[in-house]
Design brief:
The protein is mainly α and 115 residues long. The protein is built from five helices and two strands; from the N terminus they run ααβαααβ. A two-stranded parallel ribbon has the order 1-2. The longest helix is centred in the N-terminal third of the chain and has 27 residues.
Length: 115
């Protein structure tokens, strides 16, 4: 059998006592008094996009400056530079040819531009 002195027994008892108290605390937190979260509904993204579009004036793909492109939500410095480099555009759909603009991003950005 294992031979333990009083100090070792006390240390082991203390260790398991702390673990037990922690487990009781977790159980209380999860079962007896769980946090109350309000279920948040996902926003209607189409409505949010329409609201944002109404705040900004539409800009021309071929004439917009670098600064004007940066003001459009979803366009950062790199994407603005790529848009300018790929000019001229014949239609808004040509925006899909820019690296970094896929179908999803195009659906968001098309409302900010005019031909």
């Amino acid at each position: 059998m294992i031979d333990l002195n009083k100090r070792e027994i006390f240390a082991i008892s203390l260790f398991f006592g702390i673990i037990l108290i922690g487990e009781i605390g977790l159980w209380y937190y999860k079962v007896i008094n769980p946090p109350k979260f309000e279920v948040l509904k996902k926003p209607n993204y189409e409505r949010v996009i329409e609201e944002n579009v109404n705040k900004f004036k539409k800009v021309s793909l071929n004439n917009a400056s670098y600064e004007e492109l940066l003001e459009i939500p979803g366009i950062g410095p790199t994407l603005a530079k790529r848009i300018i480099e790929n000019r001229p555009y014949r239609s808004i759909e040509d925006l899909k040819k820019v690296k970094g603009i896929g179908e999803k991003k195009f659906q968001i950005l098309k409302n900010y531009f005019e031909p």
